[in-house]
Amino acid sequence: MQASSNLRGIVAMLLAVGLFSLMDGGLKHLSGHYPPMQVAALRALSGVPLVTAWVLATGAAAGLLKVRWGLHLLRAALSIMMLSSFAFALKGMPLTSAYSIFFVAPLLITALSVPMLGETVGPRRWAAIGVGLLGVLVVLRPTGEGVFGWAGLAVVVAATGYALSAIMVRVMHRTDSAQSMVFWMLVMTAVGAGLLAWPGWVPLRMADAWVIAGVGVTGFLGQVAITEAFRAGEASVVAPFEYSALAWGLGLDLLIWQALPDGWTFFGAGIIVASGLYMVHRERVRARRPTG
């Protein structure tokens, strides 16, 4: 029974990663024509109608106002920072390079869980975090040969924002529904990023309408799929398949932009992924015994 559930979870995770990668491809396209803050606003705006329909269909509308507003506002600010930084980075680097750096986010979540949630992280996991950060340096290569620069640093900022947001979800889910967290994050991000982008707003091109719609649809369906993945399968079994995004990024880079990162980028990505997989292994060990 568990094996069957894990298989469903793996399939759902692979689907989610594919959908999110297509969404990121759309964001990369939009980042070539619009300012980063406007791209962040468009990402949120395109998802609001679908999420609103989901909230109404699940009968969760009544609970939308019974939330901790301060935490939702803070999470929306992190979302704006993350999306605008990621959009800025995608304009100047391949998806594969951006994903290689962004994969440090799970390691940051573990590290931040100590001061923010009071969780215990053992020496082996701290070592894995350190190795993963070294992998980021390999990808960035501050000597100037890698992607070090504003684009590379923007991905680090985006990954940090994502990690902080994930920590907040762990706190907020104790009182707030999943529907309220997704709904208010998108609505507040749309309003906040829209206001910040308004002074430099670039008129939308009709040719980009399908891309914007696609970003909304793939983002929403990806969220549904990843929720199903973790609902159906064990987290320690399902989570490693998030790294399949590298294959998607590589395929989209080659197919659409004819771009290919160098060997050092793949080497650094391998270090980061290996560190993340080891963290997943340690989480599974901790699930069996209380020591980290």
Key structural traits:
292 residues; 12 helices; 77% helix
How are the SSEs placed, and which strands pair?
Blueprint: H1 2-31, H2 36-57, H3 69-92, H4 95-102, H5 105-117, H6 123-140, H7 150-172, H8 178-197, H9 209-232, H10 235-238, H11 245-257, H12 263-288
Helix pairs in contact: 1-3, 1-9, 1-11, 2-3, 2-8, 2-9, 3-7, 3-8, 4-7, 4-11, 4-12, 5-6, 5-7, 6-12
Task: Report on the architecture of this protein.
The protein has 292 residues and is an all-alpha fold. The protein is 77% helix and 0% strand. It contains twelve helices and no strands. The chain has helices spanning 2-31, 36-57, 69-92, 95-102, 105-117, 123-140, 150-172, 178-197, 209-232, 235-238, 245-257, 263-288. Helix 3 (69-92) packs antiparallel against helix 7 (150-172), helix 4 crosses helix 7 (150-172) and helix 4 runs parallel beside helix 12. The mean pLDDT is 89.
Stretches where pLDDT is under 50 for at least 5 consecutive residues are: none
The whole-number mean of residue pLDDT values reads 89
In terms of DSSP E residues, the strand content is under 5%
How many angstroms does the end-to-end distance come to?
Answer: 28 Å
Order of helices and strands: HHHHHHHHHHHH
Number of helices: 12
| CA-based shape | globular
Biggest beta-sheet profile: none
Concise summary:
It is built from 12 helices and no strands. The chain is an all-alpha fold and 292 residues long.
